[in-house]
């Protein structure tokens, strides 16, 4: 995730603003139009004359997917002036509006500190949504339309504040066509990866790697995964729980040494440390580098830059050795994204109703078709023709089975620590610090977080 609320996709993340003009407010003389039925069983009880604003993160998934749910809301509440705003810098764009007490009614959150918003009760408890009737499945509760783990995602201290919308995963991406042409086999351990990088550099003019250097979190994720596979799940638990010396674990230092070698041995596309996600992904898609780390939004974000026969493919992060404590197939993934309803919104019930529409089967199938992404509802990809890239992700998810976890929690719970981890990763890849110094710096940041009484603590 970016340190300024821009992109990690990021997670993630992407271009072009859209802000259609809001229609005139409904006249006071017009009758209030409310949705019939108790909010606990049907939909949210909405004042249909109130304006509604949805803030869309204009990233890898774009904004075309928002048209269907917004049109359905307009059809349901024709008096409502419905406004779509979009952007990438949520911190700068929305934090002032939270302070002023006029945030949008529903937000696709990529960049705001969700844990802090929940702790300060600035977002609405949306738990009641789970027991509402699914928008397009009469008699079926929303919770019964969701895939396992979705209802429990986005819960802080027992309260559900966030609704995910995609089933995400991330790994290392490459062109299967390019791999086949050169007879290269995807490596399962990091030493094997470095050996392949040496072969690529020696035998071709293609750079072995590139990454989204301005957003170093893109590379932190795979490095942490390599360490996780070597040390096992206990490492993640210690790091997430801010335990003393967690970041001093030999597996983390070892992984940092391995990833720094990408820079030290000239395996990175020149200038990678200074380019953004759009540039790095475009260079990769045009064949200037073999490997790039990214999440499942990569094709939707950069697929237009690749040749039609590119055969975009994702595989799990390499581990360290045959003696790793977690299998190669292990992935980070699961429910992802965060739709939130600000507690101080002018029309929170409208925001909740739009959210109910968005996670309907019809809208989720539309999202999957437009973005080539798996979604959180059962049957959400039924009838959707998957691309080569999407199929590779589905195969990786199936192979992972129970060996899948939804990211490192410290990155979700502690934004300052996340920001500091980005700084530390940048220093590591710029070779400004040694791997051991990186480890010590990360431990210092974690200890500062643990000792700060103003930061609410969570436990894995």
TrEMBL record:
Compartments, record wording: Cell envelope
Family annotation (NCBIfam families): chitin_NgcE (TIGR03851)
Name listed for the protein in its UniProt record: N-acetylglucosamine/diacetylchitobiose ABC transporter substrate-binding protein
Keyword Amino-acid biosynthesis: no
Entries under PROSITE patterns matching the protein: PROKAR_LIPOPROTEIN (PS51257), TAT (PS51318)
Top-level taxon of the source organism: Bacteria
Main subcellular location: other
